[in-house]
Amino acid sequence: MENSTVRYTCVTCGACCKERLIPLTIAEAEKWLDRGDHVAIILEAFSYLTDPEISPEYIHNTSRAAIVNKDKGRLHIIAIFAANALKRCPNLQENNLCGIYEERPLVCRIYPMEINPFIELRKENKICPPESWGNGDILCSDGVANPPLRLLINESKQADVDDAAAKVAICESLGMSVASWKGDGLAVYFPGSEALLAAIQTRNSRQREDGYQWKVRTDNAGLREILLAAEIPLAPGESNAYIYQAL
Hints:
There is one protein chain. The protein is of the alpha+beta class. The protein is built from six helices and eleven strands. The strands form two sheets. Strands 2, 3, 4, 5, 8, 9, 10 and 11 form an eight-stranded mixed sheet that branches. A hairpin with a 6-residue loop joins strand 4 and strand 5 (75-85).
């Protein structure tokens, strides 16, 4: 942002708790499901076979991904477990206050700061009203988050790393095998809550399946040619298993 010091105060408008999917750690997803609420799963794929540049962003993404298709069509898969708040968060009360404030997810504690180190905090990209900005607590100075927020951001990043392989193993146990190509589209699954909760609760006793075959869904003809040339398996264009949205 232009100012070196960014101040922010929540005005309890509730906008950030509506029409979105809220990323969760595995532990947070388990609590969310245990409360009877729903969790979606977004699956993204990428590969050095098609993007050999080892950039800082690529390294960041590989740290939160699991390697699949090791013998042929090698891919990195990122599984994002996300609380379903596509209408509104089930914990948002009528007064626009959080009903689980002390147990709210990390991303909610961190908001409106960015977790992704490659995305700059810009108030015009946030849905908070203008009166949220310029007063209140200091969010960051010269782009660096205040110490409490920095601890939460680091905790979130570490959870992404620690959970990466387990999240993909959970998806495999539920029969998920198609991911979107990172930056090209979104493949979103809405698994049954009981099945997902059971898969999460047994994750420590289950290993990733050898030879499990992942595929990529894309409607981009040019990208399909690139992926085929790299021998990356492609999924059919239609499926009832997930919702696909091209970007």
